[in-house]
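Lab meeting tomorrow. Please check the following:
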Amino acid sequence: MKKSLRRSLTAVALLAVTALGLTACASSGDVSGSNNKSSGSSGSITIGSANFPESQLLAEIYAQALEGKGYKVTRNFNIGSREVYLKALKDGSIDLIPEYTGNTLNYYVAQNGTTSDATDPDQIYADLKKNLPKELTVLDKSAAEDKDSLVVTKETADKYKLKSIEDLKPVAGDLIMGAGPEFETRKAGLVGLKDIYGIVFKSMTTLDAGGPLTVNAVKDGSVDVGDIFSTDPAIEENHFVTLTDPKNVFTPQNVVPLGTKAKLKGKAVDALNAVSKSLTTDKLKSMMKEISIDKADIDTVAKKYLKDN
């Protein structure tokens, strides 16, 4: 009887040890797999975005790419305009943000009191690197580009014979411009339109930064000319006419990761440069259509993009 009881207890103990071993193996597998979702094994990064959907999409792609490399990512999206989020980058509130080369260069040139007449994408990128604060860095620029564009309805284009921004000069005094508040003081805005093209509008209505308020205002005639981002599917959807920009008031705007040198190193650099390498304007337009027209969630679109690329 005692021998039988001893054998039973031994068997139970062996089963317990075996179960513990299997549990440990399973846990070990889960930990390695969890690197794909913000385990923090590689460090932590706070990512910001501007206050428009494309910036949020790019920030989410960056976030998921970094999580795939084991980083713990904090999302601080929809911060505001460039003037706001670049201060957040400088004071350490965020470590990384998706940016656009030409307008970021314009910002830092104005801050530094330097100059740049670059219109070539590579020269703009080189000048941007030279003008950055010493604690910041840009990684590889992508082929994807999105820039401000002036759009009108077909009816307005026909009425005033508008094909290029130059054509606005003789009629701008009768027209209302619609754009985000920062457009009023930027070189890539009213300042540049006046200095480069000699254009002064009758007035400017403050709306959103190329978002639905601006789209609807152009569509319903509340404004005559709207500033809408060139990748926005609403341009094609509403048959708007994009005015050409022969004097390059809107310089090349390649998408680029901008962040602090303290955080952008090692695997973070590899992950973000891989995103830049795969990103094109057509892919960006396609994703924006999914978000703006098909109403897909940003995180779902970002996840699919990384899976496919």
User: Anything to note?
Assistant: DSSP finds twelve helices and ten strands in the chain.
